[in-house]
């Protein structure tokens, strides 16, 4: 039995919903571990659709994280995020730190 387009869309959204939660958990854990502080703006930068769109359609990116989590567990999902998203995020953060403040 093949899935209808609506069924596939519903499945993708469900996987993305879980993937979004895993990504947010990863981001918050990483920020607390590495920075020793709560930084909601940094978390948003890592989890935003704007950032995720650099890797494809954001829902599909989150769904892939959700599938890895559901099939292989949290450690594998975190490793997936580390391999796929973190290198680009680090580059963006470095550029953000180097950027002079506006108006000067």
Structural class designation: mainly alpha
Order of H and E elements: HHHHHH
- Counted by DSSP, the helix tally is 6
Q: What percent strand?
A: under 5%
What characteristic shape results from the CA principal axes?
globular
Essential attributes:
104 residues, mainly alpha, 6 helices
Task: Tell me what the structure shows.
By secondary structure, the chain is mainly α. Helices cover 79% and strands 0% of the residues. The protein has helices at 5-35, 40-47, 49-52, 58-72, 74-84, 86-98. Helix 1 packs across helix 4. The chain starts with a helix and ends in a 6-residue tail after the last helix.
Blueprint (SSEs and pairs):
Blueprint: H1 5-35, H2 40-47, H3 49-52, H4 58-72, H5 74-84, H6 86-98
Q: Can I get a quick summary?
A:
With 104 residues, the protein is mainly α. Helix content is 79%, strand content 0%. The chain has one domain.
């Amino acid at each position: 039995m093949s899935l209808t387009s609506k069924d596939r869309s519903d499945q993708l959204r469900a996987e993305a919903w879980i993937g979004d939660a895993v990504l947010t958990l990863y981001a918050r854990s990483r920020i607390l571990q590495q920075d020793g502080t709560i930084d909601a703006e940094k978390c948003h930068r890592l989890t935003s659709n704007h950032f995720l769109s650099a890797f494809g359609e954001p829902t599909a990116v989150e769904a892939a994280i959700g599938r890895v989590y559901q099939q292989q567990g949290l450690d594998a999902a975190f490793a997936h995020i580390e391999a796929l998203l973190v290198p680009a995020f680090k580059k963006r953060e470095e550029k953000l730190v180097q950027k002079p403040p506006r108006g000067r």
